[in-house]
Write a structure and sequence with these properties.
The complex is a heterodimer of chains A (about 450) and B (about 375).
Chain A: H1 2-12, E1 25-31, E2 34-41, E3 48-56, E4 61-70, E5 83-84, E6 86-87, E7 94-101, E8 105-115, E9 120-128, H2 138-165, H3 179-210, E10 220-222, E11 225-229, E12 243-249, E13 254-258, E14 261-263, E15 266-270, E16 277-286, E17 292-301, E18 314-317, E19 327-330, E20 336-337, E21 342-349, E22 367-372, E23 378-381, H4 389-397, E24 416-421, E25 427-437, E26 440-451
Chain B: H1 10-35, H2 44-69, E1 80-82, E2 85-87, H3 89-115, H4 124-150, H5 153-177, H6 190-210, H7 216-234, H8 264-276, H9 282-308, H10 344-370
Antiparallel strand pairs in B: 1-2
The chains are: A alpha+beta (about 450), B mainly alpha (about 375).
């Protein structure tokens, strides 16, 4: 556990958070011939219990087991006894189970599937970290305080009774009072309770140090140049070590998706032309252990008259539409409920209603960013879910592949895009979906109202 | 019935069973955590510990209620009064210990929710549980002790043996409590000797002082040695595998705790010193016992720890290659390395001072215990 934290600190020298306000893992992928939608609801404390929900696309899955392992290095090759997932009695394609996550850092849940088409395996990376500590409910606190007082009074009474009579021969009545002993024993008992409380506080403080805090990099902007300080080695994600998102708040009417490159002391990037305003920044990185981290901060920018974007960078402005009259349509469910894992489905269609032809954008069919309007939630999604791609590579190979490129040749991309995700809590969100068509990166935005 | 012809009362056997359950359950529970990892309220090890608490709590309550409400209760003349109730000292303490164990359960449950499952033996709720267990164990001692102190002749001799067994069990429990400090990789560091100096002289000297046996300290240490060694040989016979991950060690059977420390050596020395200087007052005897304890223990354990890290100890007899599933390969313990120490001499001097103090406390406590009649 300490090792994982040290590695994180080497990179960030502070605290961090995987995604922002969205700790659960949503993943859709193939275990051999079986397509699975996996949701891992991470515990608030570590060690703690994660809840695993797995939906099979096909009905021929007969059994699923899961084990927790480290993502890389020692602990990634010896599985514990597998936990069998229970099949839902009402939905035979839905399995649930729970799993102890014992250590902080980059973990994986290895899923073993049995079914009509033979056995298969799927590994899903899980960044395990303590999210917060819980306060004691007042009722339980009062109960325990009462019981502690009773036990303290009782032990004082028992010890005084023993001092008074325990050494007397049978039948002899006590004669001495033990006021001094009463005072001493009471003081000792109170002292033990006070020391216990101090110890409790020290342990709680220690634990508080393990709770992940937001990583707020001290970003600097000079003219058109932005600098994000980061130390240590990182894994490239879609060929880029950092994905930097700037969102103009509160209207969320501008989005820049940039890819700063290494420079002295961190990462640097020439900003594109942007209107003046207050911007929320989200910096996505992945440590060498496969642990995804999102840094958050804000900057107030003057109107920037800078050169346009190049390469994989893109800027979206409210009102932008897809080129040539094409449209992106969100097949919304009847309602969006917080905590419900679902596939967010979008279709890209030409003006005549036919499916558009999409190209890979940084090796993926599409990218999506889900941002709550108060910036308290940020999730960077792909069609396979919320898992960082380098972590997924590590999970599938258990070997480090520095410098790997994700923009490998892909089969033809469907114009129907799905993003497995669950909105973490109720509120208003903006969903940005980014695709590439005819060599151009395009962004569509959608408003989402999520209810409890 | 006079003291020499009396039968051993039922609550003596219940006390012995209670302490035995707690010792065996505690050992099993730690082995469970080293081997399987995941547990619940209902694991066999937990049930054994709870059985110990229940035995003490129920028998204590029965003794208190019968002594309080039956005017002709046989224990009434040898009872103490607490809040209007009457009963033997040990009965009250047993009931209190069991109640404390019960109170620790909701505290521990909340703790796991608030801070996660504790991976250390001692957390605040576990400390509450330990205090409860300690209450139950001491209660068992007191019930046997008071009965023994009132008995004479053959009955006293039999009770003295029960007492020594309980003494051995409590020494074992105390040594398990400092397991983390005395793991083999720590045995060339002062911390291990300081920890042992806190626990072992206190327990050994106290129970030896209570007993009339010439070799009482040796018998107590022999019990600890035999129990811990037997468990090293016994536990690996049973299949088990980790149910928590990550798993860093391949495990196919229960992992026992450490091979016993060589407390038998200082225990023999303590018995010789006790016998040789039997007439000395406590203030004069305690420093000698403390010094003899540290010197003989250090002389025996230091080279034995080196042996335990060697190839020769990696077998079923010494268990030198048994490691918990969570021990990472680059840790010192599975690499058979000692932790480094930078202040050994000062730490050993501290251990010496501690042993002298705990020896005095043991003598004083032992004398006080010899006076217990109720």
């Amino acid at each position: 556990m300490k090792r994982a934290l040290v590695i994180l600190c080497l990179v960030l020298c502070g605290t961090a958070d995987a995604h922002v306000g969205s700790p659960d893992v949503f993943f859709e992928g193939e275990a051999g011939p079986y397509r699975l939608f996996v949701t891992i609801r991470t515990p608030q404390v570590i060690p703690g219990i994660a809840t695993i929900e797995i939906r099979s696309e096909a009905p021929d899955v007969t059994g699923i087991t899961v084990v927790p392992m480290r993502l890389t290095g020692p602990g990634s090759d010896l599985p514990p006894a597998a936990e069998r997932a229970e099949r839902s009695p009402t939905d035979p394609k839905f399995f649930t189970t729970s799993l102890w996550l014992m250590e902080h850092g980059s973990m994986q849940v290895r899923i073993e599937v049995t079914g009509a088409r033979g056995p298969a395996t799927l590994s899903v990376p899980v960044p395990a970290y303590a999210q917060k500590t819980l306060a004691m409910p007042s009722g339980l606190g009062a109960l325990l305080l009462g019981l502690m007082t009773l036990l303290a009074l009782a032990i004082v009474a028992i010890l005084i009774g023993a001092l008074r009579e325990a050494a007397l021969e049978p039948g002899i009545a006590p004669t001495r009072s033990h006021r001094i002993a009463l005072a001493v024993i009471s003081a000792v008992v109170i002292g033990v309770i006070v020391l216990g409380k101090l110890w409790w506080g020290a342990v709680a403080d220690d634990y508080e140090q393990l709770v992940m805090k937001p990583w707020n990099p001290p970003v600097t902007v000079a003219g058109c140049r932005i600098h994000v300080p980061v130390r240590g080695a990182l894994l490239p994600d879609h060929g880029h070590e950092m994905h930097l998102f700037l969102v103009r708040m509160p209207a969320m009417d501008r989005l820049a998706h940039l890819h700063p490159t290494r420079e002295d002391g961190g990462f640097g990037q020439d900003l594109p032309a942007l209107p003046a305003g207050h911007y929320e920044l989200f910096a996505d990185i992945v440590t060498t252990t496969g642990f995804p981290v999102t840094g958050t901060t804000t900057v107030d920018l003057p109107e920037l008259h800078c050169p346009g974007v190049t390469g994989d960078d893109t800027v979206w402005a409210d009102g932008d539409a897809l080129a040539n009259g094409a449209r992106m349509i969100w097949d919304r469910p009847h309602e969006l409920r917080a905590g419900v894992a679902q596939a967010l489905t979008f279709r890209v269609v030409e003006p005549d209603g036919s499916p558009s032809q999409l190209e890979p954008y940084m090796g993926m069919a599409a990218h999506a960013e889900v941002i709550r309007t108060d910036a308290s939630v940020f999730a960077h999604l792909h069609p396979n879910g919320s898992v960082a791609m380098p972590a997924l590579e590590l999970a599938s190979t258990n070997t480090m592949m520095p410098g790997m490129k994700m923009d490998m040749p892909m089969p033809a991309i469907s114009a129907t895009l799905t993003f497995p995700f669950g909105f973490p809590r109720a509120g208003d969100y903006k969903v940005f979906v980014q695709i590439k068509r005819a060599g151009t990166i395009e962004t569509a935005s959608f408003d989402a109202h999520v209810i409890d | 019935m006079n003291g020499s012809t009396m039968r051993i009362p039922w609550y003596v056997w219940v006390s012995l069973a209670s302490v035995s359950c707690i010792v065996a359950g505690t050992y099993w529970d730690i082995s469970w955590h080293m081997t399987i990892g995941r547990d619940s309220f209902w694991t066999p090890a937990h049930l054994l510990i709870q059985a110990g608490g229940i035995l003490a709590g129920v028998s204590g309550a029965v003794l208190v209620f019968t002594t309080t409400f039956r005017k002709a209760a046989p224990l009434r003349p040898v009872s103490i009064g607490v809040w209007g109730f009457r009963g033997p000292f040990g009965a009250f303490l047993g009931a209190w210990g069991a109640a404390t164990m019960v109170v620790s359960a909701p505290f521990d449950n909340w703790w796991h929710n608030a801070y996660g499952l504790d991976v250390k033996i001692l957390s605040p709720p576990h400390a509450v549980l330990t205090i409860g267990i300690l209450g139950v164990a001491v209660a068992g001692v007191l019930l046997v002790l008071a009965t023994m102190n009132r008995a004479t002749g053959a009955a006293r001799e039999r009770l003295a043996w029960v007492m020594l067994v309980i003494g051995g069990e409590i020494l074992t429990l105390s040594m398990i409590a400092i397991l983390e400090q005395t793991f083999r990789s720590n045995l060339h560091r002062a911390e291990a000797y300081r920890s042992v100096a806190i626990v072992a002289p206190l327990m050994i000297v106290t129970f030896a002082r209570v007993s009339d046996q010439r070799w009482a300290a040796t018998i107590i240490a022999t019990f600890y040695t035999a129990f811990m060694a037997a468990m090293v040989w016994f536990f690996p016979l049973f299949h088990a595998e980790p149910k928590l991950g990550p798993v860093y060690q391949q495990i196919t059977h229960f992992i026992p705790l450490e091979f016993p420390l060589l407390l038998i050596v200082p225990a023999i020395a303590i018995d010789i010193v006790r016998h040789r200087f039997a007439a000395w007052p406590r203030w004069k005897l305690a420093p000698v016992i403390g010094a003899v304890f540290v010197a003989t223990f250090l002389a025996a354990e230091w080279p034995f720890a080196t042996f335990m890290q060697s190839e020769a100890a990696r077998n079923a007899v010494f268990g030198g290659d048994y490691f918990a599933y969570f021990m990472q390969p680059d840790w010192a313990i599975p690499r058979h390395e000692f932790f480094t120490e930078h202040a050994l001499a000062r730490g050993l001097v501290e251990a010496l001072g501690i042993a002298m103090v705990t020896s005095w406390i043991g003598l004083r406590l032992g004398d006080a215990m010899r006076a217990v009649r109720r």
